[in-house]
Amino acid sequence: MISKELSRSIIELRTAFKKNDDARDAGLPREMAGVERLDNLSYGPDPKWHLLDLYRPTKVIKPLPVIINIHGGGWCYGTKETYQFYGLNWAQRGFAFVNPNYRLAPDVTFPGELDDVDRYIHWVAEHAAEYNLDSNNVFLIGDSAGGEMAEQYATILTNPEYRSKFGYELTNLKFRAVVLNSAAAFPLDEGMVTGAVAAYFTPSIIRQQREQIMAENYIQKNYLPTFICTATADFLRNNAAKLDGFLTAKKVEHVFKMYGDDDHPRGHVFLISQKDELAQQATDDEMRFLQEHMA
User: Which Gene3D superfamilies would you find in this protein's record (predicted)?
Assistant: First the structure.
């Protein structure tokens, strides 16, 4: 049972985020030329949250490079429907885009959401041949809270000691790179776990599982090539800059990009918008990065 104050914080966050997302995506089409969408594929036992959509370019014979998305939302908000337009854009660009739901706080606490990420990654591995997915060219993308989970999962993939803390098993998927958009890196930095976020990273979880949460302690030189994206008015801009410096010190291959300027600022996860020319430019940059890392 969570407190009334925490419950109110979650409701306020969900209401504000949904209002912004609905305004951002108003009028966008659910169908795009040259893209097939397969909706509500089940990847686990929960009939509401263990569902994913798969968007694929049509008229492509060879296996498709795969983007596996981890959506943002402060660990307590967001659905695949919020990311459908972003995913359809990637499918138009030639990628299969896996767009899942996962369970949200307060129904789960850390690492319950990451458990769902692991579950749907295994689903991709098991169904790659069925859906013409190239298991040799797989990429992780996450934004905000999803960016933090993408960072964690990339650490799980590349560091057996960290992976052992979760009990996850590797699949046969070959992950080539990770994209972190306005990622909530260093989640236990001062001031990060406040308001609704405390429903996922509860005080007892932080005390007992701090080492699991702090993936940065386990990032090594063999970490996945990483694209870090932020913006001038992104409230997590400093987290992205800190991660840039951190990966530089670890000698991890990465790109750091900050978009916008004083006259044309951009905010948190701006590149999810399909109506923003600069967002499309950022996606162009990320696409080139992924293409450069394909086998």
Answer: alpha/beta hydrolase
Say how far apart CA 211 and CA 184 lie, in whole Å. Answer: 17
Residue 25, Cα to own-chain centre: how many angstroms?
A: 19
Residues 6+ apart with CB under 8 A from 52: 40, 41, 43, 80, 98, 99, 100, 101, 120, 123
Q: Which two tokens stand for residue 72?
A: 């943002």
Peptide bond into 106 cis (omega under 30): yes
Distance in angstroms (rounded) separating the CA atoms of residues 134 and 23:
35
pLDDT band at 1 (very low <50, low <70, confident <90, very high): confident
pLDDT tens digit sequence for 167-187: 999 999 999 999 999 999 999
Q: How far apart are CA 146 and CA 89, in angstroms?
A: 19
* Radius of gyration in angstroms for the set of CA atoms belonging to the chain, rounded to a whole number: 18
d(CA 109, CA 85): 28
Q: Angle at CA 166, nearest 5°, toward 152 and 162? A: 55
Return the ∠ at Cα 47 (arms to 42 and 50), rounded to 5°.
50
Q: Residue ranges of the domains in the chain?
A: 2-291
Q: Which two tokens stand for residue 131?
A: 């859906």
